[in-house]
Structure formats: structure tokens, C-alpha cells
TrEMBL record:
Keyword Transmembrane on entry: no
Organism expressing this protein natively: Gilvimarinus gilvus
Domain (SGNH hydrolase-type esterase): residue spans on this chain: 148-327
Keyword terms, alphabetized: Signal
InterPro entries linked to this entry: CE2_N (IPR040794), CtCE2-like_dom (IPR037461), PCW_deacetylase/CE (IPR052762), SGNH_hydro (IPR013830), SGNH_hydro_sf (IPR036514)
Membrane-spanning segments: none
PANTHER family linked to this entry: ESTERASE, SGNH HYDROLASE-TYPE, GDSL-LIKE LIPASE/ACYLHYDROLASE DOMAIN PROTEIN (AFU_ORTHOLOGUE AFUA_2G00620)
Record-annotated Carbohydrate esterase 2 N-terminal domain positions: 35-139
Protein name (record): GDSL-type esterase/lipase family protein
N-terminal signal peptide: 1-26
Ranges in coiled-coil conformation: none
Length: 348
């Protein structure tokens, strides 16, 4: 009986060591990747993500590279290989994706960015990239960090559309071409884009009475539609927080619950990101008295840490993206204004 107990204890110890070793091995291997955004990582080397702009980047020595990924739906990505970008569509299911082939035998950098919004479903990295040479140390972080919270404007809804007459499509939506994505690229800053089309801080588009989850609720999540995946805020502490929310709250021209909703949001952000400046941005899609009302309500929240920014609105000569959204012209102007402000305040 004693021998049996000893054997059981030894087996349990070995099992624990194997499990711990497996978890550590997965963590070490994922260190070869630079993952920007919110990822739900498991010890089995699976990294799930949903937020637009989530990015995987790695360096390798060799001539070709592929990666195994899964997706619940058809999802648009941007593949950047040695600085040159193109679209890559991830089909539903799990498959090995060819990222590069026939390259010169030297060092290369691959960057894979999700362009689709979270409601297009969960995508997941199923393991490390497969290369014919070797993985190298990942590209270094810049040391600059932005957290941007918003709705369709921040997600880049219709930014690549030709006019207001087109509706939502992954083909024309691109967070890297929205004001925040453009600003982050200009500043060489990492960015977490927490954006969901149609959402508000008090109510969402089309709602008479608030019922859908608000941005204040979703911004706490790792996977944007899975409320069991709470994001650990200590994992990413930004140098600045940019909030562009309110277009949908004011969809009927007034928003009696907007200021209280914004107050609750900024209170939570100040608690999570102590000392980080928070910029509340006026909607470029609102105009006239409604826009004046939004700015007035935002100004009521301003203090030493909170500033209200007017980065500009859609002008007649700009044209429109899909469904009256800001196009590349408006977004670039907004990005230029945001870059100037952040450079001034953060000494970047």
C-alpha cells in the first residue's frame, strides 16, 4: 500500500511538472511574437482576438513563412511583408495561411493586422509561425502607448468607401486608415483600438431606451463579445487615452444620459490608468446645435487630467465614406491635429 501511495505521489509530481513546463514553454515561445492589442492566450499556444487593429508581428530568417489560424467568419486582415502591404482574407475554419514564399534568404519582417470589427467573430492564432529558416527576436516596442476608445469612426467604418451611398462592408472598413490608426503610425506608437460600430456610452444607435452593452462595458473585455474575458488593465498602461464616443448617443438629436455616462467612463479610466491624460474628442459626424451640445457636455467633465479636443468635422469638400462616415481626407486631418496635440503634451 505504501509503495502504491509513493507511486501515486511521484506520478502526480511528474504530471504537475509537465503541466508547468508546458505552460512555461508556450509563454516563452509566444515571446518570439510581438502582439499588439488584446489577446486571450492559453498554455496550448492559442491566442484569440477580436478587436480591430489587433496585430501580430515577427521577424524570421529564411525564404518563406506560414501560420495556422482559425476564424469563426470570413475576416479581412492586412498583411505587411518587409514594409509592403496587401489584403489577406481569413476564411472560416482552421487552416495554414501562407504569408511569404520565394523571398531572398535573409531577414524579413511580417506584420498581420485584423481590419474587421469584433462582430465578425473570433480569430485565433493556433501556434507559432512556421518558417524554413528560424524565428528571430521580435521587432522591439517603441515605448509609446495609446489606448483609443470609440465607435465606428475609430474602427474605420467605410473610410475606404467612395461615397455616403455604400453601406458597411469589411472591404471598405479599416482602422489603420482611421484618425487614431494614422496618428499611431505617425507617432510610431503601439495602439489598442477598442471600438464597436453603433455603440454609445449611454445608448447605442437606434435605441430609444438603452439596452445593448455600452462602450463602458465592452472596453473592459479581452474578447469584445465575451463577458467572461476581463482584460487585466495592468498588462497595458497607455501614455494617453483618447475617447471618441457620442455620435450614437445623439442619434435622435439629444442624449439626456450622455454626460452621466461619460462621467462614469472617465472615472473608471482615471482609476485604471492613473496619471494618464484623457482626451475626449468631439464627433466629426455631428453638426450644428447637436455638436455644440456634445462639446458643452464634454467640457463639463474637463479637469487637469481630462481635456476636450475638437479635431475637426466632415467638411463639404471632404466627401464622405460609407453611410456618411469620415473618409480618408477627414481622418487624415483629424490625425494631423491629434499628432500635433500629443507631441506637444507628451513631448514625443
Amino acid at each position: 500500500m505504501l509503495r502504491v501511495l509513493i507511486k501515486i505521489k511521484m506520478f502526480s509530481l511528474v504530471l504537475v511538472m509537465l503541466l508547468v513546463g508546458s505552460a512555461a514553454w508556450a509563454t516563452d515561445d509566444f515571446a518570439k511574437l510581438r502582439m499588439m492589442g488584446r489577446f486571450e492566450v492559453t498554455p496550448s499556444q492559442k491566442a484569440s482576438f477580436t478587436w480591430p487593429g489587433s496585430t501580430i508581428e515577427f521577424n524570421f530568417y529564411g525564404t518563406e513563412a506560414s501560420i495556422e489560424m482559425s476564424s469563426e467568419q470570413r475576416v479581412r486582415f492586412q498583411l505587411t511583408l518587409d514594409g509592403l502591404s496587401r489584403d489577406l482574407w481569413l476564411e472560416p475554419g482552421t487552416r495554414l495561411i501562407q504569408l511569404a514564399q520565394g523571398l531572398p534568404l535573409t531577414e524579413h519582417t511580417v506584420r498581420l493586422t485584423r481590419l474587421a470589427e469584433s462582430f465578425s467573430g473570433v480569430t485565433a492564432l493556433q501556434g507559432l509561425p512556421e518558417v524554413d529558416g528560424r524565428l528571430l527576436a521580435p521587432p522591439p516596442a517603441s515605448g509609446r502607448r495609446l489606448l483609443v476608445i470609440g465607435d465606428s469612426i475609430t474602427a474605420g467604418y467605410g473610410v475606404e468607401g467612395e461615397s455616403k451611398d455604400c453601406s458597411y462592408s469589411q472591404d471598405t472598413s479599416n482602422p489603420t486608415q482611421a484618425y487614431a490608426g494614422l496618428a499611431a503610425a505617425e507617432l510610431a506608437a503601439d495602439i489598442h483600438t477598442i471600438a464597436w460600430s453603433g455603440i454609445g456610452v449611454w445608448r447605442s444607435y437606434g435605441e430609444e431606451v438603452p439596452s445593448a452593452p455600452t462602450i463602458g462595458e465592452r472596453r473592459r473585455l479581452t474578447l469584445a463579445d465575451n463577458f467572461s474575458t476581463i482584460w487585466p488593465v495592468a498588462k497595458y498602461q497607455p501614455d494617453a487615452v483618447v475617447v471618441t464616443i457620442g455620435t450614437n448617443d445623439f442619434w435622435q438629436g439629444s442624449a439626456p444620459g450622455y454626460q452621466a455616462g461619460m462621467q462614469a467612463l472617465v472615472d473608471a479610466l482615471q482609476k485604471d490608468y492613473v496619471g494618464a491624460p484623457i482626451y475626449l474628442v468631439a464627433s466629426p459626424m455631428l453638426s450644428g446645435e447637436v455638436r455644440t451640445d456634445q462639446i458643452s457636455q464634454l467640457q463639463a467633465l474637463a479637469d487637469e487630467q481630462i481635456q476636450v479636443l475638437d479635431l475637426g468635422r466632415i467638411e463639404a469638400d471632404d466627401g464622405f465614406g460609407c453611410d456618411w462616415h469620415p473618409n480618408v481626407v477627414t481622418n487624415q486631418r483629424m490625425a494631423n491635429n491629434l499628432v500635433a496635440k500629443l507631441k506637444q503634451d507628451l513631448q514625443w
